[in-house]
Amino acid sequence: MGIKTDLANLIGAEKVSDDAKTLALYAKDKSFAKPMTPECVVRVSSGEDVEKLVKWANETKTPLVPVSSGAPHFRGDTVPSVPQAVIVDLSGMKKILNINKQQRIAVIEPGVTYGELSKALAKHGMMISTSLAPKATKSVVGSVLECEPRLNCNHQWAYTEPLRCTEVTWGDGNRMYTGEAGLAPMDLEAQWKEQKWQVEPVGPMMLDYYRLLTQAEGTMGIVSWASVRCELAYQAHKMFLVPAAKEEDLLDFVYRVVHFRFGEELFILNNAQLASLVGETAEEIAALKAELPQWVACVSVGGRDLLPQDRAEQQEADISDIAQQCGLKLQNAVTGVSAAKVLEKATNPCGKTYWKDTFKGSFQDIFFLTTLDKTAEFVAKMEKLAIEAGYTVNDIGVYVQPVHMGSAYHCEFTIPYNPENAKETAKVKALFEKASAEFSAMGAFYARPYGPWARLQLNKDAMGTQTLKTLKGIFDPNNIMNPGKVTI
Amino acid sequence: MALKDFRPMMERCSNCLGCKWIPFDKIQSQRFGENCPINLYYEFHIYSARGKFQAAQGLLDGEYGYTDALLASTQACTACGACDIACKVCRYNLEPLDFNIALKADAVEKGNILPVQKEMIASLKKEQTMIIGAKKANRSAWAKGLKLKDAMKEGAEVIFFPGCKYSYDKKLQGYARTAAELLINAGVDLGYMGEADMCCASRAYQQGLMADFDARSEANIKAFKKAGVKTIVTPCSDCYYAFKRLYAAKGLEVEVLHVVEYIDKLISEKKLKLKKPVNMTVTYHDPCHLGRLGEPYVAWNGTEKKIMNQVHTWEPRRPRYNGAYGIYDAPRRVLAAIPGLTLVEMERIREYALCCGAGAACEQTYPEVSKFTANERVTEANSTGAEALVTACPWCESNFASAVDENGKKIEVIDIIDLVSRAL
Amino acid sequence: MALSPEVYKAFEDVVGARNISQDPAVLECYRCYAAQSSAHYGPFDHKTPMPGAVIMPGSTEEVQGIIRLCNKYKIPFKAATTFWAAMGYIGDENAIQLDMRRMKKIEINERDQYAVVEPYAIGAVVQVEAMKRGFNLNMAGVGCSSSTLAGTAGWVAFGPSSLFMGTASENMLAAEWVLPNGEILHTGSLGAGSGWFCGEGPGPSTRAILRGKQGTTGAFGVCTRVAVRLHPWPGPAVIPTYGTIPAYRAKLPETIKTVTVCYPSWDAYAEGANLLHQSDIVYLGHRQFNMFGRDIKTAMIKILNDPDLQLCDLPEIMADPYIKEQNEKMKIEVSLVIVGMTQRDFDYKMKALDEIIRRVGAWKSEFMLEKPIHDWTLLYLLRLGHKNLNYTLCGSYEGNFGMSPNVFVTAPLMESAAKLKDDYAKKYPYIADTGGDSDMGSLAILGGGGVTGWEFFTCFDRFDKASIKGACDMVNISQKWMDDHKLGVDMGHWNANARREDGFNYTQEQHNEMLSKLPQPWVCGYQYLVKKAFNPYDLGGSYYRTCDPASFAKK
Fold this sequence. Notes:
The structure holds three protein chains of three kinds.
Chain A: H1 3-11, E1 16-17, H2 20-27, E2 40-43, H3 47-60, E3 64-67, E4 86-89, E5 96-100, E6 105-108, H4 114-122, E7 126-127, H5 140-145, E8 163-170, E9 175-177, H6 188-193, H7 209-213, E10 221-229, E11 231-232, E12 236-244, H8 248-259, E13 266-270, H9 271-278, H10 282-291, E14 295-303, H11 308-325, E15 333-334, E16 337-338, H12 339-347, E17 362-370, H13 372-389, E18 397-403, E19 408-417, H14 422-442, H15 452-458, H16 462-475
Parallel strand pairs in A: 2-4, 3-4
Antiparallel strand pairs in A: 1-2, 5-6, 6-10, 7-11, 8-9, 8-10, 12-14, 13-14, 13-18, 15-16, 17-19, 18-19
Helix pairs in contact in A: 9-10, 13-14, 14-15
Chain B: H1 7-12, H2 37-42, H3 49-60, H4 68-76, H5 82-87, H6 96-109, H7 115-127, E1 149-150, H8 151-154, E2 158-160, H9 163-168, H10 170-185, E3 190-192, H11 202-206, H12 210-227, E4 231-234, H13 237-249, E5 255-258, H14 259-268, E6 280-285, E7 303-307, E8 311-315, H15 329-336, E9 341-343, H16 362-365, H17 367-383, E10 388-391, H18 394-401, E11 412-415, H19 416-422
Parallel strand pairs in B: 1-3, 2-3, 2-4, 4-5, 6-9, 6-10, 10-11
Antiparallel strand pairs in B: 7-8
Chain C: H1 5-15, E1 20-21, H2 24-28, E2 53-55, H3 60-73, E3 77-80, E4 96-99, E5 106-109, E6 114-117, H4 123-131, E7 135-136, H5 148-154, H6 162-165, H7 168-171, E8 172-178, E9 184-186, E10 222-229, E11 231-232, E12 241-242, E13 249-250, E14 256-262, H8 266-279, E15 284-287, H9 297-304, H10 314-319, H11 321-329, E16 333-339, H12 343-360, E17 363-364, H13 366-369, H14 371-383, E18 396-400, H15 407-410, H16 414-427, E19 439-442, E20 455-460, H17 465-484, H18 508-515, H19 522-534, H20 549-553
């Protein structure tokens, strides 16, 4: 029997596709990852499906590549690295299994997008923190498993927040719950009946299972539901923009605001990134870029259930004082852009076209973790490398995001390009590779080691890499889970 | 109490390890947070009050005898009581210091006496001092020329009791004279014990040499009674502790004052005025036996009584020596009365001051531990930026004299009496 | 069992003669017995085994040297530092105990808000050094006398400030860890030499195997350094104190205040806790003094605030009508510390607190607002320097019940649990009879709330065999009650599957037998595989719970 027949028998014929058109959708993405056509695509609809599939894959030594978000994809992590892979498409698993306001927890399947979850939460007076203007098709589970940075680092007590418990099928085919859910029977309904709401992510005993799933690019197992920590909805919410000529001018301000845990969303954008975020067309972006201040710190204040206006006012006044001490000013708008628009754009899923695509049709990101004081060095290096590569420096977007209450900073460069222009594409690819390597040498920490970053990062620490390999051998002994990723 | 009587305390100690630190509420830095000289030096758990509470159980159970480490932990302990007060921030039913002394006594009883201790005992018996090499005949050299009554011949209500160190140390003799003169000049009808002036034997007690302590203290009490002594004034913190606490427990009913208390009294009564500026910055070391161990004795003879099923209390109420009422403010008031003088405090002060390292004759029994401790304290003193370290105990003074901080730097050590005399 | 001279010499060569001992009296001090916190496998009357030697390494390299020798000679080992609870002690006869006391460095990175600590940096000293730079740390509930590293890397270690500052697992950044096979693992950003700022990745986090929820409690190698996230402290560099021992008090600005909120009912308590969790206004929240027992908590506070009072004064103080009244008003309470980063921030937080109080019909305890008591409580809660008070009443205690972390599950059951304990204490004289409800615990045990900590204190006398037995009975009775209410394992038995009643480790077969019955046995099954991979000679002991998958695959 062929793979398709096997899978049709196992999961259901209607869930399996191997037509060329479908396969082509998964054979490449918008990154520079080498295209590879999968063998077929299975659209699973439950944890049981996943378990059956992984067990079968172990028997047949078939590589599996899990995908939760809809297209487009940008990081290469969902493009098979090896032939004859089966795509496990979880994007159809769209159930919001539970929302618990008392515990501020939602249990969702991997296909649920930010837009869908936000809409459901709003009915309960709740919300979910997001990454910066996620794409419309972005899976919340995928986003939190990949530790995409959140805009409000103050509510990230853990680096992995808002991810809590999961149901996972490991690479060896065993399905279990992680976190506190792992200590009770594998039955969500039964757990809810006993008022267990999948709140605590760690453990449940000596091993932090969920940490093996984060930043893993699907190499350890497949998550079929996850609980995520939500917040009460804002009753008052307002953003301010703090412009500066140099990034360095904003650092003390950010340090202090983060230190005192003031504000809600907080991040730094350069003019190119801010223009891309708010501009609706390439022309508008170009025009905005010319007008906008070189750097802008975006900081919001908000109040939820308890005296929201008082809270927002207090935060505004305190942050304003900090700005003043740093020779800066909170503004409701900078030339051409209102803070309200930035807030709306940043905290909501973007439209059909991903906002980074608007300017030139495609882009390549380079991002890593570092400390805030070092970000300026990376910016300077990026500028130097762009000039050397003959790329327009002013087109490069920069996004700096405090994570985990400011212990670390996500530093992201966005290099837009026209994918139709082979020369420009090649130039950007070369720049991407060069900059990635140079940043690595400067101490950039590729915590999420997509594509070539895995080699750059894992080569630096033989013991860490060996440990990871050993763990992979335990949870995915036949190396069927997205082989070729996060490895050297 | 014999060692075996401490069994309930041994078993009820819960290993919180508070005994290794000054009271946690008072810690200001990691560098100066610890309090136990032997634990700082040896580091193993047994070198702490808690460690000994546990090790002594094995000893009582016959699992082992006095092993090298148990003996070192017992003998090197300076009996400074820092563990005792740290423990009592929370506990109401443990007496670490009394236990440490009982363990020392038990070790001695089992024949564990160091050669140097034997010499001290011999000296105490022969020359009535534990300072090896000192002669009884020279004991009163400090008093030469002073108009002091010989209490044993003339009777005296107030006597000046210099203690061995002030009596024999050539440098310190002068301070003893100064102190006595201050009192005389203030109109005190002052006497001293003359031929009957002997060692208080506090250091015998601190080493668990109970027979020697008993013999000496009982003789002294007899002499005080015979002389009609009502007040003892001493510049020595060890003697102060002996009379105030140990002799009181043996029935001595006299007022005991340290010289600093008397000077403080004279200043407050305006009988002594310090006029001459002493322009320096100093720090003050609280001697253990004047500070946390300087609380007045309260007689008690009772037993444990549990209330509310299992809550431990004592019947009748047991005195609780936790350093609350030690002598801390009098010396600081005296220093404050000296014009031009600035006091900067160390981090470990008052009831949680670090020992100088000389307690329980440690400078003779375990000189390396003693020196280490003195150096540690001088490091702390130098960290304040003070030019001098002032103290009110001759043993501390002597131990600090040769000490250096962690950078090899010394500090001037000044007797508080000397400092007062500079301001006269 | 003593080490052979050859093996002893090998260890001695690593650390030097001064830092190793097999003197039996020294070894005796590294045994745990019922007077100490067993945390939590029941107040059993036993001692843990005598170690073969005690070794004090002074560096990571020395730790590695020791562990390599342990692997070479197949000698089990366990590292501990402040030895608060039974989990720090070895569980084999021929094992060696590592006392980490010599490693105590603290390095603070102000900009990135963390401290890199070695094992013997206890909470108190990490806090004082952090405060000098405008920071504080989540002081684990165990108190400031315990090792910050041990809590962060090795145990659950939530605390009163976890609502604001997060819990140990959340605050753990990069770590340096000597694995049980002797290899040194650097987690997160440290592995790549980028610094200590991140403990995760690259890719799936290897730190996953190092602590989990319960911590590996020294059973999975030795953590030698860990970066701990710090949190803002807007107060003075050193907390100024005043007052006479033991009633030390803090003299802090008006923007740092403690308020004890009292509730009319457990329902109101639950609602109040939920609002506090959601509010972002609480710096620290703890139900603290109730640990002495509901009937005596106010009287105990009086005693602890007066150097002249003692436990024998309890009956008289309790009879005081004012104390009676205040105690009654403070029956269901939680003590909060509100810290304003600015005056404005403080004003908002107090206003918000008043609003919560209004919504749930609560009130502030006047007694706890009396200036001397306020200042004492504030110091107590900020430093947690009074952990020995856990033992004050009887010399020993065991935590029990430990109900659901969901406040809405637990709160309605509190009176029933309290009655169960009260009935036992009234019927038998073995445990302290101080009012049934002796629950204490943190307002939240996870950053941002959602889960709460509960622990009843059952105080007993380790010197009295009947009392030990009584405490065991109480834990078993409360376990039955927990079973009846489907609340899982009683806290007094949390670690009952980690160490046998005789103080020794479980064998693999024993663990297989008990852990294969877990609802999801793979939880321990993978731990078995991880142990096999990184600890091939099983040198860590049975606090690392493992279950051979073959044992449940058969069933």
